[in-house]
């Protein structure tokens, strides 16, 4: 008797067309979550919060779901028509088709041959696919970062001769910058020293010229005083 009921459920599920499964309002309610509810209480609490039944829609039904996405790299909370998931696989929300459907790339050991997508919380191993994918992505990202760092700091070598295996490191950009900086500082110090000496020499010349001018003025004044004294004596 149970087998007959299962077969009938499968037939009813297969009779459903893609148009019936697709729901344009579903994608508007779709939200990515860090994790899905895994117990009945958590599922009911999340469903009450989402309140799918109060959202206007044109679908055959509009029930709370929390399933993986088609790429297995995220969990999606969405209101959508429930579907029969057949073949011991996980349920997914397909953004392209706006519907809940089976994910053929996710084998579910504890899933029954047929179950309702709105009962996805009963099979938490499906959510573990997301964790596995995240670990793989993180390891790949870390490896790429290490490769980029290695390429950035690896010392380059130039062969001395095509017939020899001897090689020597090429001077890096950092060494060139340091060398140019030191050279610039030395040149700047030299120019400042030269400028100081020129200023000192010019000041000395001006001082000597001033002294000479003052000496000439004194001679002129002395001669004038002498002439005045002679003129007074003659008078």
UniProtKB/TrEMBL annotation:
<feature type="signal peptide">
    <location>
        <begin position="1"/>
        <end position="17"/>
    </location>
</feature>
<protein>
    <recommendedName>
        <fullName>FZ domain-containing protein</fullName>
    </recommendedName>
</protein>
<keyword id="KW-0472">Membrane</keyword>
<keyword id="KW-0732">Signal</keyword>
<feature type="transmembrane region" description="Helical">
    <location>
        <begin position="174"/>
        <end position="200"/>
    </location>
</feature>
<keyword id="KW-0812">Transmembrane</keyword>
<keyword id="KW-1133">Transmembrane helix</keyword>
